[in-house]
Write a structure and sequence with these properties.
Pfam families: TPR_10 (PF13374), TPR_12 (PF13424). The chain is an alpha/beta fold and 825 residues long. Helices cover 51% and strands 8% of the residues.
Amino acid sequence: MAQNRTLNWRTSFQDGSTNQNNATGTRESSTVEPSQAPASVYSGPNFAGAHHFSMENPIITNIQTQHVTFNIGGISSGTSGGLESQVLSSVLVCPFPSPHFTGREDILGQLSDIFQSPPVVTLYSPKEGDLAKFIRNHVKWYGSVIIINGKTASNVTEDIAKNMKETESLVADTILVIENMDPTLRISDYLPPWANVPVFITGTKREIIEGEYGRISFHLPDDTNQLGREELKNSLKEILRVKQNIVTLVAAGGTGKTQAVLKFISRNVLRFTNVWFFDASSEAMLVENFKELGRALKISEEVATVRRFLTTMKHNWICIFDNADDPKLLQVLLGKYLPVGRWHGGMIVTSRLRDAMQLASSPHCNVLFGDLDEGSAIKLLLKHAREETSEKNLKLAGKIVNALECQALAVCTAGAYIHAMISCSLDTYYLQLKEKSKRTLKHKMTGESYPWTVYNAFMLSFGQLSGPAKLLMQICSCLHSTAIPVEMFQNAFNYGFTEDDFHETEKEILGRWKMNEIIDCLGKDNDLLEIIDELGTFSLVSYNVHHEHPTLSHHAVIHSCAYETISLRDNIVPAVTLILSSGTPVGHSEHDYALRRKLLIHVSHFSMDELEHLTMKGQRRVARIFDESGYWTQAERLQKKVLSLQTKLLGDHHPDTLTSMNNLGSTYQARGKTEQAEKFLEIVLSLRKELLGEHHPDTLTSMNNLALTYTARGMTEQAEQLQHKELSLCKELLGENHPNTLTSMNNLSLTYKARGKTDQAEKLQEKGLSLCKELLGEHHPDTLTSMSNLASTYQARGRTEQAERLQEKVLALRNELLGSIILIP
């Protein structure tokens, strides 16, 4: 246990005869780390509006136990029955921050601003009597006043020695008044380190408000100006009043909330008379902490009694309620445990629960807490790995921390793992990132105060979820971690696959029964949004709305941990692929296309072998996602598998078989396999004419696709003839405003252009674009294709300015619609 040390401040100061030739200064908070040895020289703590200078930190540290004794001053005998400060400094001791702590300067700055140092206020008047009268008539109402004569250095020294003998003489609402201060003195050179109270300086020389104290300065209005004096009193009341702050830091486990708080305390111990650290992870632990404090105070161990004592204790204490992650405890934390009324201390609550934000005393006391920035994460990784900061290591570390999305605990653990495993280095860890990162989820760091592995920290929250919420997290962990469309789940749960969607040979398909269990659990008796809200309550998911498509996203580390909770992956992974395919829309609207585009990243998350275990209908839907996004290799593989199954089970002439042949033929064409495409599409067209007739919409689709293949093979004359016929039939059967008719117009215009008929191409494209905008909307992919084609025709005709404007518009709309996500096939 560290020894409590009393600073003999009288011997630490210059005596009153010293000539002070500096302008009036202000005090700055200590930024010395607790690991530094205390010294006897004092320069003064921080006051608002202060000039910056340093202070040695008179704090007692115990490095062996990694705890710090935070007690700058005790409790007055009149308040606590003669307790010595050493007793209180040994209870609920605040842990020492990790020696590897890095970054979070923004968080530390916010906390510093909230628990800001007491202000220094100056008041000027040429009439000394008016200043004295104002002080005695008004300032006393703002707190307990200690008046110091500031005319000379010796006056200041004598009055401080007389009126500020012990720390106990200063309660939280004390105001130190320096009357008639000499502007050449620096008050910080005379105050003891524990005198962390507001200072009110008065003077009859204008320099008092023009110097460094001038940031919070006032000119005393004449006594005839009652309105001005009233405004001054109100301003002083607001500036000097005791601030009551409850601060909340809310984020998922392992982000470093507690470490940031400990770092803040270690940097700013002189702001607080006492620091008490409560374990709020359970009500039983919290009650025991209150009993411990009650015993140290020599009062009743009842929570209510200790709570009342804190309320009446007129000192600038701070209580930290750490890991308030129990929803039931959180509901009673404010009403049963946190001091209420006009208390004089401060409180910080760390929690994973979003509801904890409601405890904050004001909106600015909700400290937004995210992951580390990349630079800080790299430093943290290299510190734990004990690796040098070479250019090569910095690059490797950057790749590793980005893969971990800069989550503090995951980064620390990865570094500790690299250091602990003799066969592991930054190079090997990065090369085997997926495998190594899974191992590190359950790796326990040695020599650190944080007791949890990454996985265990996650399980503290996961274990409190309801069954449906756990299941939804596990399903999401089988998908990509970002931008999971909520509508996909809603489609699957509300519509899903019917019995007719399963061929006789697919009745026992892998994952089908698990899919039915999932739909029963999540889609019938439960509100999906309520389940999502539950995950959000524990900071396990983010809910985003973009273009009317709400999506879910999980932190990469949380996503990996959730996947590790799945015991029977051979059952749930196939079930998730079925849900994904059943939630894929099959329509032609702009909305349907945009949703299929969002599903691309998720179907790409599965192996092709896993996708080939889908139903035939499911594979066709997934193949369409790949095809529309230009992933023709994947589309071709699934389409071949579907065609093979349908030919075997349904026969060559079945409409579904012909549709699959048509789709595969179109994919061949897109991949440049035009000869294969031509053969397939000619067979499809012949069979459709025979089975469905020349006027059937499917027959017209085949005519269109075959004509495109003719164009791709340079057979533009045959293409034009077939497209003329197909466009004429589309207008007759479907009408000029039908999407298929618009597609035919566009395709014929391309053939015109290929044959050098640019005038006819331009007219047809302008008409087609106008109809697309009217019928489909400006953001529809077909509209964008029409714009792009028309721009190309403008350019071919030498109208480059029009072409450029249209191409810029297409690019802007595509970026808006598709985003910047690029996946490599």
